[in-house]
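[job 0412] stage=complex_fold ligand=NAP status=START
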Amino acid sequence: MLGAAGGVGSLAVQIARSRGARVIGTVSPRDHGYLRTLGAEPVTYGHGAAGHVRELAPDGVDAVLDTVGGALLAATAHAAAPGARVASLADIGAPGVTPVFCRMDRADLTALAGLAETGELHVRIGATYPLERAADAQRALAAGGTPGKIVITVG
Ligand SMILES: NC(=O)c1ccc[n+]([C@@H]2O[C@H](COP(=O)([O-])OP(=O)(O)OC[C@H]3O[C@@H](n4cnc5c(N)ncnc54)[C@H](OP(=O)(O)O)[C@@H]3O)[C@@H](O)[C@H]2O)c1
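[job 0412] stage=complex_fold status=DONE, emitting structure tokens
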């Protein structure tokens, strides 16, 4: 999982874990502990990341889900087993990559609600703002760097 601690990645990690998959995720050093709480194995992204994934999975990984794109996605060829499925929702035009477009129907939402109820799915909240400070929330979102979702509260 590339971008495993992000908004999409962290949910995808938890769904994969709930289905019994072993998950290795690329994250920044600050998110190693967080990823472990999700039951996944962290690898720091950047130079050499694909090699570190190979150390954890010597035969290569069976599937890659990318939420980052660019050089990190290109490097996954070194970490993937022959015939591995590679999908991306960030670099949807990359050659040899299955593009992913997130959409959910009623059955998907019901399944996710079920995982939330059993405690298998948590949404990471990075910051909370009252409605009067919605502009600050928007600025924080645009600036990036908040680990998790930004929530606006009313009342
Ligand atoms: N196709 C679709 O339907 C669809 C749907 C939703 C989102 N998206 C796209 O999917 C992407 C991810 O969305 P998101 O909401 O999950 O974003 P996000 O919450 O900002 O998460 C992005 C993650 O990528 C990590 N990251 C940043 N630079 C990286 C790098 N060079 N190498 C490895 N990891 C890196 C970040 O880690 P750090 O913060 O630690 O750097 C962060 O954890 C965005 O491009 C978004 O537009 C597509």
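The CA atoms of residues 1 and 47 lie 16 Å apart.
[job 0412] exit 0
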